[in-house]
Design goal:
Length: 180
Amino acid sequence: MDASLRAVLNESERLLVADTDRAALADLDEDGAIELEARVRRTRDKYVSQYRRSASARVAEHGARGSARPENARAAAKAEAFERALSRVSRRVAALARQAAAAMRAERLAAARAAKDREWPGADEMVPRQRGQRRVGPPAPMVPTGEGAPRNPSTEKRRASTMAAGARRQAKRDSKNAAS
């Protein structure tokens, strides 16, 4: 933190900015980082709104908020300091969230694999697989039954309907050709 910034911030604000240093952020877990991000965001929003309010009050005499900025340099410096602090904390929160998501995904995949391995019939008698070997499961039924069967009342009706529609289209086409 440079001397000009130290002169602008009070003690509690200096401590808040110091909490966003790389070493301090490394010690935080995800929940702590999220809580710190919320505190820094609130403080940043406070100083940004103060800067805008005071600059907009001077617009009448200066003609623009930008030309009123030199008189409002302290509020702008504070807003900028907390903007930088917020970006550091937000990057840390994002990194921690990615790590947590990867850990949760690996945990879910491991649980799914364990559940899948237990569901196999004869899983107890299975020999552990070697690298590159395929898993051998129960044999598939030779002829599908139920809705998956190639011939059942539902598929027969659909097939007949399709054939009838095709026959109607062909008859219509034939009658047009015969008329000409």
